[in-house]
Design brief:
seven-stranded parallel β-sheet; six-stranded parallel β-sheet; binds adenosine-5'-diphosphate; binds magnesium ion
């Protein structure tokens, strides 16, 4: 290539400072918003489009119309009013007259118009004292200012106060893009050129980019959006396919026989496994038998019985003299797993240990040596497990609970402590399908979609505080029948002190005034562990009837006799959290009840509680949660930039995601290093635009 020439060429990788009107100062602000190169701006997707192709006559507009009107300014002036001043411009287009009104930015607007000017106005038509356009957009058509708004479909860009202060409102972005299109000599790499995309029809990338920023028809915008969405999902799926491929290339081990431990645990189970549990165990065993490393996600709602599945999986590995770990995101969860699994381990003399963050000195040293010499067969812990002094004799199975709460790098460190260990991720957070195949697209998925027999669906009801006396009477009756009850108070980081006070006050009231004859326990997160354990143990043994708590009980307990849960200030909880909480009841054979006390009315809160009242199905709740919060929030962590993408929409993109996934997986299966000539551009663009997502995928 001619270096001299390309040096001066304006390409998609050029810095924005090359563009007229973008000085260092404005460039710095754009950069702060993630917009540094021309490519960044080209992929800056409008948030909506306004159709201004249909110019209307004043005598034909109606109230409520989104109108484009072109007329001459016949009068202008500031109108003083008792309440507030306004600036008014009256225009005529030959068929009638209409007034445009501004209540703010008056001094700036006042300067803009001269009588006799031809102006295009865009706005919603209102009617009071005649036809009005309030705060319309406008283009001066006579002033030599280039009309970039009129007779077109107008892209509206996302912006911030800071961007606007630099002139980057929608109009500013449109100007910037226009300058870019005038200068741009090389468009971003089109990965699909020369590629067989099967039945999926994709327009060239340069066309799509132009259609998005200077759209000609609504139809073209649609085709362009499809093209751009497809590309975004495609590269994410390429990443998933590559990750999966790396695991598949690694030769895992063969764990063929189920072994003695499995048989013995099986014989001692106090229940028979559900069909779903058996199906999932079969899928897992199939992976363990094959030389390909297992990389499986086990989804199952709270209470669906994942623990015993995890145990039987670990038992196969331990039967082959391998070690298994369970890594959980919090201490409480780790403790719960430890307690839950220990029951089974004790039946068959498997040596299980819990490695907690707080353990130090000799105790820690002794634990570490057991892990190192293989005495510890099943190891439970938190992030503490990835510390460098934790060394295994033969780590052969990793079970990661709620893995989206760990970074890829953290998982990687743990994986490297073993020799191609089998990986089982577990989650009680039901994940909508479109999200599962994107965020967990590199894994096989197993679902326990059936609850153990005999569970009655929980009845859920929203109440206002006025109804509480009735609720308390109901609780008394249920307790007389032998049942137990949780009362949960929210505990949010931001208002922790006040929340703790509310919970203590609530406890005092319930304990002294409302249920003086019953035994009421109280636990909260700030309590010493032994004290909490005593309270917990009392409740487990049915020595206390009611347990008041802050959100600490979200995870960690299994008390089938507890059949009522009152959730205070329920509107403050998110859907996922409400679902998790509610999962603590409905575990026995008696009918369970969940009472959501709503103290503050907000629309979003009411919507959430309404969903809880309507369904017990975790997947349905998850879909709603995703709709309300978006994927980034849904997972509680920001994932590799994808969640922030302006163009993807997980509610709407399901079909696109599936097609993009199929194409990506086909390509990587045939050409895992993307070195084949039709894949040159795929590879180039992946390395150039999606490199930061690469993490640990090595494509050579
Ligand atoms: P999860 O971890 O999926 O929330 P658990 O494994 O804790 O669920 O199981 C919830 C409860 O159901 C436990 O008390 C467990 O002993 C019990 N359980 C698990 N599987 C079955 C089954 N097949 N039949 C009856 N009870 C079961
Ligand atoms: Mg295997």
């Amino acid at each position: 290539m001619d270096n001299q020439k390309s040096y001066f060429k304006t390409t998609y990788l050029s810095d924005l400072t090359y563009i007229k009107g973008v000085g260092p100062h404005r460039a710095a602000v754009l950069k702060k918003h993630g917009l540094q190169t021309i490519q960044d701006i080209l992929y800056y997707i409008p948030r909506k489009f306004l159709d201004r192709t249909h110019i209307m006559k004043i005598n034909s507009v109606r109230t409520g119309d989104e109108a484009v009107i072109i007329g001459k300014v016949i009068a202008k002036g500031i109108k003083k009013n008792r309440k507030r001043n306004s600036f008014q411009v009256t225009i005529s287009d030959g068929t009638g007259i209409m007034t445009c009104v501004w209540f703010h930015s008056i001094s700036w607007i006042t300067e803009k118009f001269v009588e006799g000017d031809l102006v295009a106005f865009f706005g919603k038509v209102d009617f009071y004292n005649g036809l009005k356009l309030v705060h319309p957009d406008f283009d001066l058509l006579d002033s030599g200012e280039d009309p970039i708004n009129t007779n077109q479909i107008i892209a509206q860009y996302p912006s911030t106060a800071e961007l606007k202060s630099m002139g980057f409102d929608s109009r500013g972005f449109r100007r910037l893009l226009r300058s870019i299109f005038l200068k741009l000599e090389e468009y971003p790499i089109d990965p699909f050129i020369g590629l067989n995309t099967g039945t999926v029809r994709l327009i060239p990338l340069s066309d799509a980019i132009q259609s998005i920023h200077s759209p000609e028809t609504l139809e073209k915008i649609k085709t362009a959006m499809f093209r751009l969405k497809f590309e975004e999902h495609f590269f994410f799926q390429i990443l998933m396919a590559l990750r999966r491929c790396v695991l598949r290339e690694a030769t895992g081990r063969i764990f063929d026989k189920k072994g003695d431990y499995v048989k013995r645990i099986y014989d001692r189970l106090p229940f028979t496994l559900t069909k779903a549990q058996i199906k999932v165990l079969r899928e897992i065993h199939h992976d363990l038998k094959s030389p390909i490393q297992m990389n499986r996600l086990l989804q199952g709602d709270v209470g669906s019985g994942k623990t015993v599945v995890a145990m039987l999986t670990a038992a196969i590995i331990i039967g082959h003299n391998g070690q298994a770990v369970v890594m959980a995101p919090t201490e409480i969860l780790a403790e719960q797993h430890f307690t839950g699994l220990k029951k089974y381990c004790d039946m068959v003399d498997i040596n299980i240990v819990l490695l907690k963050g707080g353990i130090t000195g000799d105790e820690r040293a002794s634990l570490l040596s057991k892990i190192k010499d293989g005495t510890a067969q099943l190891i439970i812990g938190t992030h503490a497990l990835i510390q460098s002094d934790v060394i295994f004799k033969d780590l052969a199975l990793i079970i990661v609970d709620e893995q989206h709460r760990f970074g890829v790098d953290q998982r990687k460190i743990l994986i490297d402590k073993g020799y191609h260990p089998e990986i089982l991720a577990m989650t009680a957070t039901p994940i909508p399908r479109t999200l599962a195949i994107t965020y967990h697209g590199d894994m096989d998925v197993s679902v326990i979609d059936e609850l153990p027999k005999g569970r009655k669906p929980i009845k859920t009801k929203i109440v206002t505080p006025g109804r509480l006396p009735k609720v308390y009477d109901f609780i008394k009756k249920e307790v007389e029948k032998g049942r137990q009850c949780f009362v949960v108070y929210p505990l949010i980081d931001d208002s922790e002190k006040m929340d703790l006070e509310a919970a203590s006050t609530g406890f005092e009231k319930l304990h002294k005034k409302i249920f003086p004859k019953l035994k009421v326990g109280y636990i909260h997160g700030k309590m010493k562990n032994d004290e909490r354990d005593i309270q917990m143990q009392d409740f487990i043994e049915n020595k206390s009837n009611i347990l008041v708590s802050t959100t600490v009980i979200e995870v960690g307990i299994d008390i089938p006799n507890a059949s009522i849960m009152v959730i205070e200030n329920a509107e403050r909880f998110g859907l996922a959290q409400l679902h998790q909480l509610r999962g603590r009841i409905g575990r026995g054979t008696e009918q369970s009840y969940c009472i959501l006390v709503q103290r503050k009315k907000t629309e979003a809160g009411l919507h959430r509680l309404g969903i809880m009242e309507m369904t017990n199905d975790g997947f349905e709740i998850a879909e709603e949660d995703l709709k309300m919060r978006g994927p980034g929030e849904f997972f509680g962590t920001q994932q590799s930039g994808y969640g922030k993408s302006l163009i993807v929409n997980f509610q709407e993109d399901g079909a696109i995601i599936r097609k993009a996934r199929q194409l990506a997986f086909n390509i990587v299966e045939k050409d895992p290093h993307l070195t084949g000539s039709p894949h040159q551009n795929v590879r180039k663009k992946f390395m150039q635009k999606y490199k930061s997502m690469l993490d640990f995928v090595n494509i050579g």
